[in-house]
Design goal:
This protein has about 500 residues and is α/β, with parallel strands linked by helices. The protein has 18 helices and 24 strands. It binds ligand UAG and adenosine-5'-triphosphate (ATP). The site of adenosine-5'-triphosphate has 22 residues, from helix 4, helix 11 and helix 13.
Length: about 500
């Protein structure tokens, strides 16, 4: 594609070279620049992409997009723009010929529940014989192909490439998780969302957003991008506020919930230890729903999926059978098979709200003690302290004993995180044991378990690594549990 054509609608200043150069690819990483690429220099959180312009030119870049004044001796084309992240998204959408205008794009946002809602939705759309793509934390699915994602919502260039591959695979609907980071950092800018879904908003990711208000505004962006339907959980206080805010937009608002009045709502809810059933009430009639994952969480997540499928004219029958066909979601209330008389559950709960709701479900059915293994990844400062305090409080209130350990401490001191959590557990009169090494913590939990106890290992879910410092260490909880139980004779703690 000719550069002049690619940047036709862009506001820019040409600082060197010509616009009449042929561009065959886009790159935002100098290491991925190929011959005749355009390199977009992004000012990052850890390094400045402008520092790699020489490398990009050496690797074959024929044009560079910058947002800073740079001093490089070259006859390569350089154009300066206001915001390179936004321009990267715009160029990427254009380069791949606006793929999102060619299928139904459904975006799911919220602090918790995005992955679960997308999986439930995919099952429904598959049942309705639609060709459905999926993008999220657990990777991308295009037809039978699975691709790993670095981020829940990939960078705009990678995202538009995935969309383009979906078009090539005749995708009719793409269901994707839209993280608040991706909304703040313009990864999803210039994507045409048909449907926006809001699950809930509780404290998380405050290292980026700084305040709940900023976090809310980031999430709210999606509901101004979507053109057909905004689907919002009105039992959530921020959801209620969002619904009021977008009610008069041209995009049709559909609300869902259990407690507050909503277009799609659940009644006759019955909880059991491995599933939840209820009646879903829709403007087109009622259906009985069975979700094979327990707890109120999955009433909400399935209601979001039902509302979306309903808006996209999928029959109530396909909705019903689609949801019941989901036998479980990796790392979401996942029971690890053992031959023991206690139960081990792995779950991705990593916020106060998620942990509280998940443990409420466990408590409903626990015949023995609840042994909770958990840690917190939280930014330094007040927001991080609040998260540690909040999760400590939930642990004290719901668990019979909490084994406090590490959960991706990253660059922070794991001991000081644990000390903060423990302080909260003590104040809230909880029982605890602090073990920094997560593997040892799991072993300890198994060692003290007795008949009918439930060991609830929260925080990592599907993840198979632990990030300590900058190192990502393999860490597979399911394997650790199985291995420990197989050797349990050696580790029983009296
Ligand atoms: C904090 C954050 O969001 N960081 C994201 C951001 O990285 P960054 O801009 O800081 O990158 P950087 O390393 O400083 O580099 C700056 C620029 O220089 C370039 N570079 C760098 C080195 C080099 O040799 N040459 C070169 O050109 C880089 O490619 C980049 O363009 O842009 C990158 C490209 O899109 C992302 O992969 C990266 O996500 C990191 C891995 C991350 O951990 N992000 C998390 C916080 C995140 O985004 N999470 C959300 C949701 C999580 C949830 O829902 O719970 C997500 O959507 O994944
Ligand atoms: N609707 C919900 N309300 C509260 N907590 C939830 C809800 N849905 C899921 N959770 C909790 O959050 C955990 C993660 O769920 P899920 O992966 O669906 O969310 P997510 O939004 O995709 O998370 P992330 O963005 O961190 O990947 C679950 O294991 C569960 O403990």
């Amino acid at each position: 594609m000719l550069l002049s054509k690619l940047i036709n609608n862009l506001e820019y200043t040409l600082t060197s070279g010509s616009l009449e150069v042929e561009i065959s690819s886009i790159a935002y990483d100098s290491r991925r620049v190929a011959e005749n690429s355009i390199f977009v220099a992004v000012t990052g959180f850890s390094v400045d992409g402008h520092k790699f312009i020489d490398m990009a030119i050496k690797n074959g870049a024929k044009a560079i997009v910058v947002e800073k004044d740079i001093c490089v001796e070259t006859d390569v084309t350089i154009i300066k723009v206001k915001d390179t992240r936004n321009v990267l998204a715009k160029l990427s959408a254009l380069f791949f010929d606006n793929p999102t205008s060619k299928f139904n794009l459904i975006g799911v946002t919220g602090t918790n529940g995005k992955t679960s809602v997308t999986y439930l939705l995919k099952a429904i759309y598959d049942r309705a014989n639609r060709t459905t793509g999926l993008i999220g934390t657990n990777g991308t699915i295009i037809k039978n192909q699975s691709i790993k994602n670095k981020n829940t919502t990939p960078e705009s260039l990678d995202l538009q490439q995935l969309f383009s591959n979906m078009v090539a695979a005749n995708t009719s609907d793409c269901i994707m998780e839209v993280s608040s980071h991706s909304l703040s950092l313009d990864r999803v800018a210039y994507s045409n969302f048909n449907v926006g879904i809001f699950t809930n908003l509780t404290p998380d990711h405050l290292e980026l957003h700084k305040s709940m208000e900023e976090y809310f505004r980031a999430k709210a962006k999606l509901f101004y991008l979507s053109t057909d339907f905004n689907i919002i959980n009105v039992d959530d206080p921020y959801g209620k506020r969002l619904a009021d805010e977008v009610r008069n937009l041209n995009t049709k608002l559909i609300t869902y919930g259990i407690n507050n009045e909503a277009d799609i709502y659940a009644s006759n809810i019955e909880y059991s230890s491995d599933s939840v059933t209820y009646i879903a009430n829709t403007p087109k009639g009622q259906i009985s729903i069975k979700v094979n994952i327990p707890g109120v969480i999955y009433v909400y997540n399935s209601l979001a999926a039902i509302a979306c499928a309903y808006c996209n004219n999928i029959s109530l029958k396909d909705i019903q059978t689609g949801i019941s066909s989901v036998k479980g979601i990796k790392g979401r209330f996942e029971i690890v098979p053992t031959n023991k008389d206690f139960t081990v559950i792995i779950d991705f709960a990593h916020t106060e709200d998620g942990l509280q709701k998940a443990l409420t479900t466990v408590k409903q059915f626990a015949k023995g003690r609840i042994i909770l293994v958990f840690g917190v990844y939280a930014a330094p400062g007040e927001e991080g302290s609040d998260k540690r305090w909040g999760m400590g409080k939930v642990a004290a209130e719901y668990a019979d004993i909490a084994i406090v350990t590490s959960d991706n401490p990253k660059e922070q001191d794991p001991v000081s995180i644990i000390e903060d959590i423990v302080e909260s557990i003590k104040v809230h009169n909880g029982e605890f044991k602090a073990i920094v090494d997560r593997k040892e913590a799991i072993k300890y939990a198994i060692g003290i378990s007795q008949k009918d106890d439930i060991i609830f290992i929260a925080g990592k879910g599907h993840e198979t690594t632990q990030i300590i410092g900058t190192e990502e260490i393999p860490f597979n909880e399911k394997e650790i549990v199985t291995e420990t139980i197989n050797n349990s004779g050696e580790i029983k703690i009296s």
